[in-house]
Amino acid sequence: MLKLLLRKTCWCRARLVHEIHSRVIREPGLTQSQKGPDVLVWETPLKQVLEAQSVTEAFFRSRQRWISVPLRSFVPLGFHLSGTVTEPAMQSEPETVCNVAISFDRCKITSVTCSCGNKDIFYCAHVVALSLYRIRKPDQVKLHLPISETLFQMNRDQLQKFVQYLITVHHTEVLPTAQKLADEILSQNSEINQVHGAPDPTAGASIDDENCWHLDEEQVQEQVKLFLSQGGYHGSGKQLNLLFAKVREMLKMRDSNGARMLTLITEQFMADPRLALWRQQGTTMTDKYRQLWDELGALWMCIVLNPHCKLEQKASWLKQLKKWNSVDVCPWEDGNHGNELPNLTNALPQGANANQEALSGPLQARLLFWLTSGENARFFWEQGGKPRNLQNTQYFDSSNRPHRTVFTRAIEACDLHWQDSHLQHIISSDLYTNYCYHDDSENSLFDSHGWPLWHEHVPTACARVDALRSHGYPREALRLAIAIVNTLRRQQQKQLEVFRAQKKELLHKGVTSITNLEGWVGHPLDPVGTLFSSLMEACRVDDESFHGFSDFMENMGQCKSLEYQHLPAHKFLEEGESYLTLAVEVALIGLGQQRIMPDGLYAQEKVCRNEEQLISKLQEIELDDTLVKIFRKQAVFLLEAGPYSGLGEVIHRESVPMHTFAKYLFTSLLPHDAELAYKTALRAMRLLVLESTAPSGDMSRPHHIASVVPNRYPRWFTLSHIESQQCELASTMLTAAKGDVRRLETVLESIQKNIHSSSHIFKLAQDAFKIATLMDSLPDITLLKVSLELGLQVMRMTLSTLNWRRREMVRWLVTCATEVGVYALDSIMQNWFTLFTPTEATSIVATTVMSNSTIVRLHLDCHQQEKLASSARTLALQCAMKDPQNCALSALTLCEKDHIAFETAYQIVLDAATTGMNYSQLFTIARYMEHRGYPMRAYKLATLAMTHLNLSYNQDTHPAINDVLWACALSHSLGKNELAAIIPLVVKSVKCATVLSDILRRCTLTTPGMVGLHGRRNSGKLMSLDKAPLRQLLDATIGAYINTTHSRLTHISPRHYSEFIEFLSKARETFLMAHDGHIQFTQFIDNLKQIYKGKKKLMMLVRERFG
């Protein structure tokens, strides 16, 4: 009886296997006659191959392998597939043979082994080749029942022969195992004999066993750990992004391994030792690494929002997420600054019932806990009990709140559900309308067309769209996306109506605190990017084989160019609208949203980066008349929506600037509506955070949940980038306005009013100058004047501040003024005191204007030259009066050709010589006077310079020594009287013995100048050292030598003895010039011997040299 029961069971199992192998699933590209087992066709080889490292590396290489290379010993055995794949010989490698085995169960590959030894989380090419062979050549494969069924049909002799042959063929591998099993079977008490039956790897699992796609968890962990250990090198970031793309593709295929794989990845991310190190050192993680964490959080958001996940699964994920969230090193949502918003993911009403009722239950309690904890908290309630405004709440004190991490939103999303009837109708039907619905309240379920709306926290609603897309529900995601966009458009209209009702009051105040605390661009959930991608996918015209893998390929950087068409949606869109127009419009709505600048470097950089990424996607779309209408519509709304728009007339002082977005709008609208383009760009030029006046706060009209506390001044870490974008916008307008006087004046006025960086204004001035003086066209005089005006503003801004480019700016301005014309040069010289320092005005401006190159460049006539020269001389004299120390020489040079002006400049120098000028400046001017042929004026200035000089005994290398020698030589050349007059000054100012002796020798070598004062001729005799003025100089020189000698001996060291002896030798030469010099020197030496007799070695050297 038992034997019959076993036969019946085996027959049923065999029948099941036969049915599975007989099932026909048509694969794209195959004819109906080509058949393969359901298990291999069902999403597996083609999908998995395309998810591998790259399309060419895995799929096509594997496809070529099974086509060109015969597979040997190909055996489909029950639920097991095995075969041998030959690796063709390469130039440097011999042919290799790989043994491949695949197990499958219920349309899933559950196990994979290959002897190639490749360690990777993806299927190797040999496994793919074997799978493709089975799919493409089913007629060449003989199916077999599981091995247990075959063994059951054998008698005792056949079984014995089977076992013995098996051992003989593989005796080196299986003989020890065979003997061990034989011993256990023969032992009555062995574990094997305690179990009925025996395992069969080819029979598949039982119906109660868990089945899932094969995933090598150990390899996943090792790969992620390896990539993380490489930091930002070796393309590790790209590899990790590929893993994330793999997870998204698995979710789209509804593969249960998606969550498993993401869990493994997250565990390795959390175990990264750099997290603790960064937290300990207080440093921030790298930007690319931070983006990986963002993607990790977004993927978990998709996981927990799976519309068909079981409650047990969600509970398990929530438990794991909370565990990671509680770890100290878990990264915060916005870098080092946790997002200061309360639980907005699920604190707002959602669904049909919630759209009509006030917050209730735990959600209300949670929101009230956050928003009413402060003593001064107060709510503005509308009908139905909805909170509308909040002011001065304790919520804004970040010290009282736990930080939000990258997993916080996923944890909050676990409270969301999909059971709302209104939501279910939206995503399940294209026909869900209510044309009789007339509720025009803010949270109505349908709009005036009867089309469904979905009122929910916008990022959360968009996260639902992303979850639907990620889990393989593109149609449902598209329906919900359309409902959200229609809701946003209706909200726009409502906001416009509100602002128009209060426009007069707001414009009178001039300030407002109405703002969005949470911007959609740069948001962790990327709501605008999600809506845009969903709608664009619906209008994509692409190759069929490529469709479905675009997200994966984009992450690999191999996305081919795509084309988009206006594919009309038959429901819920206006006439003439399409998915493409809707995608563009929602992108414009998001980019133009008025939102406050977030705290923290990373959050601010993310806002800029996401804005640029979204604009780059828009730039890929070719604009047609339909899209231009959308641009016009949104531009008009942005200009007229007041504080609800980033381009409104009155916006919050700390709103995110619109420069980058406005530049894109400007370039897009300019060919079609220039007036609107300029109006938009000019409105966006402002940068309110740099304005000097702070707003007083306007709480008259709230926006969303709360209005921020006024006068909050966060650090704008990206301010330099923002200012550069502002500069780019202005430059774009200047370029476009070339030749249009009115527009150039308007743009110039906007630049002067809104740009606060002198460097950026200077760049704009240079750009305008280059555009105006292009080689292939005549200079644009209007644009040149704009360039000059900008340059003048730069001069005024940097006049009293330090700027390392100031000299370059001054030179450039003179060049620009030269291009404009002679009147511009004359103007800047007449108004120099508001533009330049006196030194710049004389040494750069006036000198360049008076140069021959400028005269030739402007083709000036004599009258124009004289007018410029007169202005330059006036400038020079004014500068010399204001700053004689630095401008006197330049003033004299500029006034050379005008006797009166030159005399005036000289008199200014004389007047300033006694108080405002030092000896170096006076000596320089004196040398100039001698060079110009005014020796007596040079002598006068030299004597004035000597009165400011003081050379001590040890300053024998002082830079003024040459000037002193030159002054004495000049006096000597003029005559005895001049020399006699300057020698007392020299004796008073110079105490250095070597300098005095040098002057003394020079005066005794030659006769004083043949022409003295009043034209008297000198005698031609050498001056006597016994008479004045040389006697005074000689006595001073001897005295200087005596004083210097005593000073040196005070701190002399043995290594300076020889130098000291040489010094005494020079002193003796000077002593001997006196009538009784020999006696004086002998007495001097004797005194030294007596006073410094303790320095025996030195005195011995003195005796040897001088006796």
UniProtKB/TrEMBL annotation:
Gene Ontology CC entries for this record: Cul2-RING ubiquitin ligase complex
Keywords of the record: Metal-binding, Zinc, Zinc-finger
Keyword Lyase tagged: no
Single GO term (MF): zinc ion binding
Stored InterPro entries: Znf_SWIM, ZSWIM4-8_C
Domain SWIM-type: start-end pairs: 98-135
Protein name per the record: Zinc finger SWIM-type containing 6
